[in-house]
Structures are given as structure tokens and as C-alpha cells.
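User: Sorry, what's this?
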Amino acid sequence: MHASKANVMVDVKQVLGRESSDELITELGGIPGVSRASVSSRAPRLVLVDYDPDVTDSQRILGAVVRHGIDARLVGM
């Protein structure tokens, strides 16, 4: 049996500093069901997240970003 896969892009309204970006990626990677989280090298305001939709959802991912005090929105699923 294979896990379901989905991805989402989170558009952050400000460019994140290295430390803030690293903390956010670590937190997102700790959400059950998230298999990968990274800041786009081509668009530093985009956070890319791969996840299992049977375990978590895009709203939980966005909530984790917003809890960091970051103004953000989902732009792709």
C-alpha cells in the first residue's frame, strides 16, 4: 500500500531571513504526514511542502506558517 501524496505552495508576504526560514522548515517537517518542506531557490517567498493528505492537510500547514507571525496564503495544491 502506497501513501497518498499531495503538495502545496505557501506564498509568504515577506522574504524570510535564513534563521527564520530554517526554523519554519524544521517545524513544517515535524508535522505528521509532511515528507518534505523547502523554500524555493527560484522564488524565496514560496515555501514548497509535500505531504500525505490522509495524515494532514494544507490548512494545518498554513496554520503552522501563520503561527510564526508570517503573513501567508496557499497558492497551489
Residues 6-76 form a domain with the Alpha-Beta Plaits fold (CATH 3.30.70.100).
